[in-house]
TrEMBL record:
One of its GO terms (molecular function) is RNA binding. It is found in: Nucleus. This is S1 motif domain-containing protein. Gene3D superfamilies: 2.40.50.100, Nucleic acid-binding proteins (2.40.50.140). GO terms for biological process: CUT catabolic process; exonucleolytic trimming to generate mature 3'-end of 5.8S rRNA from tricistronic rRNA transcript (SSU-rRNA, 5.8S rRNA, LSU-rRNA); nuclear polyadenylation-dependent rRNA catabolic process; poly(A)-dependent snoRNA 3'-end processing; TRAMP-dependent tRNA surveillance pathway; U4 snRNA 3'-end processing. Belongs to the RRP4 family. SUPFAM superfamilies: Eukaryotic type KH-domain (KH-domain type I), Nucleic acid-binding proteins, Ribosomal L27 protein-like. The keyword Magnesium does not apply.
Amino acid sequence: MSAAGAVRVRQHQPGADIALIERGLGVHDAPISTTFVCIGDEISTEGQEGFLRGHGTQVVDEKLVATVCGVVERVNKLIYVRTLNSRYNAEQGDVVVGRVADIAGKAWRVDLKSRQESKLLLSAVHLPGGIQRRRNAEDELNMRSFFREGELISAEVQSVHADGSVALHTRSAKYGKLTHGQLVEVPPNLIKRQKQHFHTLEALGVELIIGCNGLVWVAPLRPDRAAAAAAADIGADAADAAAEAPVAPPPSKGQLEVVCRMANAIRVLTRLYMPVYPASIMAVYEAAMDKNVELRDMLEPDFLEAVVKQEAQRRNSAMQE
């Protein structure tokens, strides 16, 4: 083989990728950095006698070694590695965004990008006008008037059954069909759980639904949905509030640009594997506006590097305080 066609293979250096990230963020000897491991990295068991080997680990030459990339978790004597790109595990009360896959019987099957099958029963939907009554055969025949296959909806996890299947409900007016917006998919591990997952940014004219399953909905602000969400928060009649709200006009070009910028801000956080929540999204959005970054350039390496430097400065300032 000629010298030009020769292939050079470097020896694997455990922890080299972690050191690279730490150098980029200006972090040295960070206590949390030792909990991140890649395949082949040794997991420290010093001072821990009789440990139990959990998922994502293997004993090689009397040393505990990671078999997957992720975060080391310790529960009493159990040591396991939680993978970073795992599928969503539903929990009761989670706000989720999903796509209707099909209709079977008296239920819609909804794709949540999760491990479990998810169903939305006809009895668990919000009827037009907020009417409270039993569902009948006519409602079953008209199920596609509520949600059709392929449509996006927001819902809440009502329960998780013993077999792992998920039951959803949309009994509040703030849940339901999603239209005229953008859907951004992020790893569920990056979603920061909060008390509220419906966010209204009135100054920008944008509404956010941050699904716990990693699907984020960004859309122009609609007065009827904003009124319904506000009424639901204070326990008022959401249906009446939505009906009394003015009809939303078609979104302007400026609103659509803001929606696209917010969606790109979420994509920036996803590429940098940073937590996704309103404050972090706004930080990236404002950084792009301050630097006069064009919409099409928000995902370019130059802006990504600027966001990393900004986050490094924020963390260093927090450590000094």
